[in-house]
Write a structure and sequence with these properties.
Blueprint: E1 2-8, H1 13-27, E2 33-37, H2 43-50, E3 55-57, H3 61-76, H4 81-87, E4 111-115, E5 119-121, H5 126-131, E6 137-139, H6 158-161, H7 164-170, E7 176-180, H8 186-197, H9 210-220, E8 225-227, H10 228-231, E9 248-250, E10 253-256, E11 259-260, E12 263-265, H11 271-278, E13 283-284, H12 288-295, E14 311-312, H13 319-330
Parallel strand pairs: 1-2, 1-4, 2-3, 6-8, 13-14
Antiparallel strand pairs: 4-7, 5-12, 6-7, 9-10, 10-11
Helix pairs in contact: 1-12
Length: 331
């Protein structure tokens, strides 16, 4: 059975609805969708999920606990992770809930596509599932151009563990990938932990939570992977991130030089931004109308009607905001 899965809590309520609606609009209402809870703050999304027969909130606490413990053990091997987290005010494990996406490896779907809650599905996923017949890991992104959000590029052991050629071609973003149930059984997880404890943990970039672990496991275990962004000819590949400003919107889809996007990732935009816009605050951000279309696909009457001049999402703070921020930093 093929399925889609994501990770969410009530903080990303509006984004989750938009994602679920985009999946329904693109694939129909039959494909199973599993939502892994980031934490216990899920009352709002649980009510929304209950309205959708094909969508389920994952509740196997034993599996969740097992993968969280694995994540803790991974980061316990890292020589500087906890010090790095303390510098940003995190007294425990950094964004531990993001690792719950690993539950899909023991989930209900034999093959699945994982999508972050801040994505929209805009095109066919048939080629991705077809590629899973030949590969165990399938991605479509350009994270390989910036491996610094996966590995510590200054780590002395990095290039002895993975060659520069592998780093340049096998890195992927953990916001969108396809894989299979049973990919990381206990014996493989124990092997990974042993390698990290032997000194390889220093290469992991500690601020990206789940992403470095997934990359390390796939690369260390030699799992067959395929990246459409590297394999497709230039005439067929598309971008996928909100940071690309050249996409053209048509019929609630996006196109990159007339080529339809498979998905759009609103990477780098905070969940608070989406919530404020949905509450009626006129803040502009890239491809906002597309997000609002899918967010209010089934309740267009609730879509906010903006009457004021829009504010840019990334506009510099005004003088008073700067003063208040400085006072908070000094207190």
């Amino acid at each position: 059975m093929d399925g889609i899965c994501t990770l969410a809590n009530d903080r990303v309520y509006d984004q989750l609805i938009a994602l679920l609606n985009s999946i329904q609009a693109t694939l129909g209402s039959e494909i199973p969708v599993w939502v892994y809870p980031y934490d216990d703050n899920t009352s709002k999304i649980a009510a929304e999920i209950a309205r959708r027969p094909n969508v389920n909130l994952y509740q196997d606490r034993d599996v969740i606990a097992r993968w969280e413990e694995f994540a803790r053990q991974v980061w316990d091997t890292h020589p500087t992770a906890k010090q790095s987290w303390q510098k940003i005010g995190s007294e425990t494990y950094h964004r531990l809930g993001t690792h719950r996406r690993y539950c899909a490896f023991e989930g209900e779907s034999d093959r699945f596509i994982y999508m972050d809650a801040d994505t929209l599905l805009l095109g066919s996923v048939a080629p991705i599932f077809q590629q899973l017949d030949r590969s165990d890991w399938v991605v479509y992104d350009f994270q390989h151009k910036d491996p610094s959000h996966v590995y510590d590029l200054a780590a002395p052991k990095l290039n002895t563990i993975f060659s520069p050629e592998r780093i340049a071609s096998e890195i992927f973003c953990s916001g969108f990938y396809a894989s299979k149930k049973g990919m990381f059984p206990l014996a493989q997880r124990e092997f990974i932990l042993a390698q990290l404890r032997a000194g390889e943990a220093e290469i992991l970039y500690p601020m990206a939570a789940d992403q470095p672990i997934l990359n390390y496991m796939v690369m260390k275990l030699g799992i067959s992977s395929y990246n459409f962004a590297l394999q497709l000819p230039e005439s067929e590949k598309t971008g996928c991130c909100v940071t690309s400003s050249h996409f053209i919107e048509k019929d609630f889809r996006l196109y990159d030089k007339d080529r339809p996007l498979t998905y759009l990732h609103y990477i780098g935009l905070s969940s608070q931004l989406f919530a404020r816009v949905c509450q009626g605050e006129n803040i502009d951000f890239p491809y906002r109308d597309l997000f609002l279309h899918y967010r209010y696909l089934h309740e267009p009457e609730k879509r906010p009607k903006f009457t004021t001049k829009p504010k840019a999402y990334n506009q510099p703070p005004n003088l008073m905001a700067k003063v208040m921020r400085k006072l908070r930093l000094n207190n």
